[in-house]
């Protein structure tokens, strides 16, 4: 069985994701689609709208055959580490190809860009440091450095100012660096850009636009044209059974408590907290009644909204620099769900997988997995919903979903 891997968050699953799955299957002639999916905290440093099991089931009902969890360490990391963890898992589970959505739409510019950067790696890294010293954020410094080293190139290179192109480049980079057997593919991202609001004249909207509509307008039913019915049903069920959706404004009371009860030394020990910003974070938390007010006080040209949110995620979950440095590579394949075809694939491949397969958490001892379990518990507590029974220990009670 030929397998193609995709890297997803599905926050929430919408028609654009459905298109990605269908086109990935067609473009790579895949029998099986395997999704590496972030858990309950995401790459932009925020809680997921709904939990990882709900999002897994949405994917399985819309064309994915196996969902494996991207561990917290990589799911909440900067783009290069997020990509490295994702590609390592897809390689370990035996994918023949991986396919990502991009603004570019063709793979050659990505491979050309990797070659261009690799041949001038030291110059590239030095330029990034120089631009950051001038006060630029990391993404802007990266883009400026890239423009500098490629200004005389005649190759067709990828535009690294686009968010999906950036992630796509890092997927290709990770695959080459680990000598992966998988072949890279990309498909054109269509209609909605990454941050676009919902456009009622279209049938595809960005996940960002859909979340914004849910939080600002509150009516999920009006989003029916932008997602498969199975996804809409899951959101409606979640609203009825849980009552609230995951977001930093929802989590703010617990996050604020965590910040204020911590010493400055403790805040500085958490991953991605650098350059004395713990002073600003603490001061802003004492003065801000809402999450939006807090972010207004903290955000600057040097620190992007996403980077600050990743710091806050690590503060909230207690994830330290020491823990980050201790976990450089994935150590297991955690199955969240599968179809019957996915189950057949795993039965065929289980003896050749390069990482152990985890279906029962209680039977596995792994410090990387322990971080995922803690993140799940804190996510459930952050929802602060009286409708949730026994929020602690869900990872031990949940078995893989089978569709």
Automatic annotation (TrEMBL):
Keywords: ATP-binding, Cytoplasm, Ligase, Nucleotide-binding, RNA-binding, tRNA processing, tRNA-binding. This is tRNA(Met) cytidine acetate ligase. HAMAP family: TmcAL. It catalyses: cytidine(34) in elongator tRNA(Met) + acetate + ATP = N(4)-acetylcytidine(34) in elongator tRNA(Met) + AMP + diphosphate. Its EC number is 6.3.4.-. ATP binds at residues 7-20, 101, 164, 189-190. It is found in: Cytoplasm. The keyword ATP-binding applies. SUPFAM superfamilies: Nucleotidylyl transferase (SSF52374). Pfam families: HIGH_NTase1 (PF05636). Belongs to the TmcAL family. Catalyzes the formation of N(4)-acetylcytidine (ac(4)C) at the wobble position of elongator tRNA(Met), using acetate and ATP as substrates. First activates an acetate ion to form acetyladenylate (Ac-AMP) and then transfers the acetyl group to tRNA to form ac(4)C34. It is an enzyme of class 6 (ligase). It comes from the Bacteria.
